[in-house]
Amino acid sequence: MVVAASLVVVAGAVAGALAAFDDGGRASDEAGPPEVSASPRPAPLPAVPTRSAPATTASAPHSPSPSARRTTTPAPSAYAKKREHRTAVAGRLYRHPDSQVLEWVRSHSGDPRHAVIARIAEQPAAVWFADYAPDTVTARVAAVTSGGAALGRVPVVVPYTIPGRDCGGHSQGGAPGLDAYDAWIDRFAAGLGSDEVIVVLEPDSVAQAECLSAGERADRFASLARAGRVLKAANPRARVYFDAGHSGWNAPGKQAAWLRQAGAASPASSDGIFSNVSNFHTTADEVAYDRRVLDALGGPAGLGAVIDTSRNGNGAPADGEWCDPAGRKLGRAPTLSTGEARIDAYLWVKLPGESDGCKGRPGTFTASYAYDLASS
Length: 376
Hints:
There is one protein chain. The chain has helices spanning 26-29, 78-89, 100-107, 114-120, 137-151, 178-189, 214-234, 252-261, 283-297, 367-375, and strands at 127-129, 156-159, 197-201, 238-243, 272-275, 304-308, 343-347. It is α/β, with parallel strands linked by helices. α7 links the parallel β3 (197-201) and β4. The protein is globular. It starts with 25 loop residues before the first helix and ends with a helix.
């Protein structure tokens, strides 16, 4: 499950420990509240689906299942080689200057954890748009994309307002309906500009679709396919990635079937998939899993994957805990040059230091949590 904010936060790795400060008061430990609302069928379908008639919701728990470990990497086509070249020459990732971690750093210069948390703020991370605010979203997206363009760097943006978000869990919320969501995406796309930008489209929207009825899934996937087409039409240099969950969740074939229904195999909608957002699975496991999903997905050989490495330095907890589990640490630094075939980028999508809802309010930066991650 994903808990997110509409501001950027960033992370880096450092050592040391000041455990005496972990139980400090909330007033000095948290940044201001973020702008948040609160925190698979195997038969292939057309890449551009249409919506079904309304259906009744059927609830199901978020229950990841283990996946197998086979990896196959096809020979690159001319399209793939073109994409690999584009990734290699892309500028550095953009660090947005308005974030919860920077807010904390600026207002807590005397805190003994300041030096550690200040280093966290040196790296780029995604900017989330988790609140349904159609009147302002275009300007807010444009502020991020134009900031990146001015520096020749690549921003990462996360639209996160799908209706029925998080199946009513910690990050529940989103647009009031799919028609409203479609209109919101139109406005989001209008802010993308004309320079390179990476779009991580709706975390959990595909992998967590088990809680929807078959008809509701079809409707959601039709909206996601439409969203991908709208985003790429608005800015042909936008790279749009679809939700593949993570290596400890759905089996690759099941996930790929759902992704195909959501338009992820169509180059008109998609540049590939993303995985491990707000989770902790190792980069090696995610690389292997993503390649298997891409193989099962089909579509152009140039489709790739991006992986959230923000909190996976120690891997996932053995007990499967997902909500601010202890003992985690920051993972690989974000980069557009991974050295791995079909892996386009390692990104910090989840904002390190922002709570999943257990160490603090969902989506809120908590200094003690950030410090624990950075000093593990």
